[in-house]
Amino acid sequence: MAEGNEVSKEELKKALKHLEQFYEEVFLELSSYGELRDLYVVDNLCDHLIGNVYAKFYDEASALKAYESLQGKYYHSNLVVEEFSPIVNFKDGKCFKYEEGLCEKGPYCNFLHFKEINKKLIKLLKDEMYEMHPEYKKNRLNNNDNKFNKKRQRKHEHTSSESSLDRYDKLTRKRIIHKWNDEYISNKKIDEKKKKEDKLESHRSNKLQKNHKNNEYDKEEKYEKLKKKEYEEDLKKNNYEKYDLKEKSKSKMKRKNKIKEIKKMDSNEEETISADALK
After folding, report:
1. Which of 107, 114, 182, 193 has its Cβ near the most Cβ atoms within 10 Å?
2. In degrees rounded to 5, what are phi and psi of residue 112?
3. What is the pLDDT of residues 156-202, one digit of tens each?
4. CATH number of the structural domain spanning residue 62
5. What is the rounded CA–CA span in Å between residue 177 and residue 187?
6. 163 with 177: CB under 8 angstroms?
7. pTM here?
């Protein structure tokens, strides 16, 4: 039994050494692309978690650089498959029961089981990273200073000379707050008035446009009606003229026929008179 226990301890030591070597290699490789904040090695055996390593950088640019440069690379004849993790805070995804040794599912749990890494090793690796890349600290300090200055500018913009109310009495504070409320209400009323005026103006402009269109349409209709009337009047006139001509022609024909009849009558009378004379 003693020999078995000794062997198991030796195996544990070897496994820890391999884990530390792996952690060191991965940490130094990823730190070459940007300032690395945290690195976690997963101990789960689920299909979607086995062999996963989560790296957290200080900025998105370095994470993107690592993502692009690791594409198509191999680690011990295994292709590295990189993805952007949806987990921002790893505390939300880890299994708290695993840390207490109470996880019933064991390595097949769907929550993250992180392997324990020696804190001294992590500190040494971070020191080595800053020795190899001293610009990381400078960049981070500059970024923090810029963020702090921006926050101060925003506060200065939002705060006025009367905003520091601590140095005033209760009455003055109340007066100042009253003033702010009145200003806010007055500004709100002015905005509402402007909105109403804009609506009225838009309504008027739309009405004018409609009236203008209607007037143009009415003018066109009137012009067309006038044209129709003129055309109808012309038609009527022409018809009347034709009718008059027809009537005139008829009256002429009648006259001619009457004259012919009268002539015939005269000729017949003359013939009868001549016949009587001969007798």
Report:
1. 114
2. -75, 130
3. 454 444 445 555 666 776 777 777 777 878 888 888 888 888 888 88
4. 3.30.70.330
5. 15
6. no
7. 0.49
